[in-house]
Design a protein that fits this description.
Layout: H1 7-13, E1 20-23, E2 26-29, E3 37-39, H2 44-51, E4 59-64, E5 74-86, H3 90-98, E6 106-109, H4 114-124, E7 139-144, E8 147-158, E9 161-169, H5 178-192, E10 196-202, H6 206-214, E11 218-230
Parallel strand pairs: 9-10
Antiparallel strand pairs: 1-2, 2-3, 4-11, 5-10, 5-11, 6-7, 7-8, 8-9
Helix pairs in contact: 3-5
Length: 231
């Protein structure tokens, strides 16, 4: 299996096992970290194990290889296609990096910034983000008049790869290149560890996809992001 296949499961069973809650053939991140969940495979046992991790009415966010059909004890809340994109072309990153400003107003974010990070993520909806998501890796942000207006960081980690995630900018500050600045810094840190950056994005978010392609990302596969509720 490629490290990026069933990537949430692989993260929770390898480099990020410390954040895992476990039941049989299913894993989920500690809820305060993120709502991402996974199982070894979408089998009867996989869904039964997943149910063991959730309270009645609890929801699970999965990344599936195909569309959800049905599973006993679960109802579909939301599903949409997403792209898994990988930046294996180091030359493309170097070229984009050379065109970036020599100095950027970014600063590393941590636990003291958690409230502002959750607020920005809630406003812009780059994906699930909790009060402890910043513990998954390095996060950078840009402030204006003391308020966090843009950020990006690292989320899923599997052998040889780290995900660029939570790329978002406050609606009043878009068009200034902040996402590109932050992504390049995060990507540079990943490459310095001899790892390959990857990311996930809604297939319908064409503006973001175009930016990622300019930075050297290419689509590896289409996944189906799926939110299920335990009946």
């Amino acid at each position: 299996m490629h490290p990026l296949d069933n990537v949430i499961w692989q993260a929770l069973t390898t480099r990020q096992a410390e954040f895992a809650e476990v039941c049989g053939e299913a894993r989920r991140f500690i809820p305060e970290v993120t709502s991402l969940t996974a199982f070894r495979e979408p089998s009867v046992e996989g869904y039964r194990s997943l149910a063991g991790l959730m309270p009645p009415g609890g929801t699970a966010l999965l990344s599936l290889a195909g569309r959800f059909e049905s599973a006993p004890g679960w109802e579909l809340v939301l599903t949409f296609p997403g792209l898994q994109m990988v930046c294996e072309n180091g030359d493309a990153v170097d070229s984009a990096d050379s065109a970036a400003p020599s100095s950027s107003p970014s600063a590393e974010l941590g636990s003291r910034d958690s409230g502002g990070m959750v607020e920005l993520a809630t406003l812009t909806n780059p994906g699930p983000f909790g009060p402890r998501t910043h513990e998954l890796g390095k996060y950078l942000g840009i402030r204006s008049e003391g308020k966090l207006i843009a950020m990006a960081g690292e989320r899923l980690k599997v052998p040889g790869y780290t995900e660029v995630s939570a790329v978002c900018t406050h609606p009043e500050h878009t068009g200034k290149g902040y996402a590109r600045i932050l992504m390049l810094e995060i990507m540079r840190g990943i490459r310095d560890r001899n790892e390959i950056p990857f990311l996930h994005v809604r297939e319908s978010n064409t503006r973001a996809v175009e930016l990622y392609e300019r930075l050297g990302f290419r689509t590896r596969m289409v996944v189906q992001f799926t939110v299920l509720r335990k009946i």
